[in-house]
């Protein structure tokens, strides 16, 4: 059997929850021999306010630990999400980690994969979608990159609280699901497989997609046990303790 591509999302590493980093490092280390590459498709960090954050001991510690795993195993490739859209190559490269921007395409076994976090496709309430577009706009991106770290962290913390107010605290088992039609433009552009996260709910949407030969997967979060998707030799396996 060939080596696997492993996809995961929504780890939300944060200094006040060190157990998440421990679990992620253990997960990655346990798969050194079986993975060809690991793709983290958004929200690796609970928030990221620019390259200066890597100078903070706690956040730098996360990157160093991931870099150590990457040095002894498969490459770790990281996509930006709605919480860490400012995560870029200059932040990751010193630790031996790869940045994929906000969208990534790859090909394996004749299949064309597209990876996105999925927050811009999720059927949120209109004001929540507007909020996500605003925080990723040029003004907020400039603010995150330009102001001192303590100021950017304070703004990020405030926005996290506001996001919780906008979205509300909901049981993820009762969360709204994706509408597969939202992803059709990616398949119209040539994707055969699309993998996303963000919804904190693992699901294979392939049957609902209604596109013969195409696959659509959402991987779940890292809370209460990891969720991931693996691909090898033409076969997919979606793993989540909540399924």
In short:
The chain has helices spanning 18-30, 57-71, 89-92, 126-135, 138-146, 149-167, 184-188, 206-209, and strands at residues 4-8, 35-41, 76-79, 98-99, 103-108, 111-116, 193-196, 203-204, 215-218, 228-232, 235-239. By secondary structure, the chain is of the alpha/beta class. It has one domain (4-239): Metallo-dependent phosphatases (Purple Acid Phosphatase, chain A, domain 2, 4-Layer Sandwich).
List its traits.
Purple Acid Phosphatase, chain A, domain 2; 6-stranded mixed sheet; 8 helices; 5-stranded mixed sheet; alpha/beta; globular; 33% helix
Characterization of the model:
This protein is α/β, with parallel strands linked by helices and 243 residues long. The chain has a single domain, classed as Metallo-dependent phosphatases (Purple Acid Phosphatase, chain A, domain 2). It is built from eight helices and eleven strands. Strands 4-3-2-1-10-11 form a six-stranded mixed β-sheet. Helix 3 links the parallel strand 3 and strand 4. Helix 1 packs parallel to helix 2. The longest helix is centred in the middle third of the chain and has 19 residues. The radius of gyration is 17 Å and the shape is globular. The mean pLDDT is 89.
CATH superfamily: Metallo-dependent phosphatases
* Number of spatially distinct domains: 1
**Terminal residue distance:** 25 Å
- Looking across the biggest beta sheet, what order are the strands in? 4-3-2-1-10-11
**In percent terms, what proportion of residues is strand?**
15-25%
Q: State the helicity in percent bands.
A: 25-40%
Mean pLDDT: 89
Write the CATH architecture name: 4-Layer Sandwich
Query: Unreliable segments (pLDDT under 50, ≥5 consecutive)?
Result: none
Helix/strand/pairing category: alpha/beta
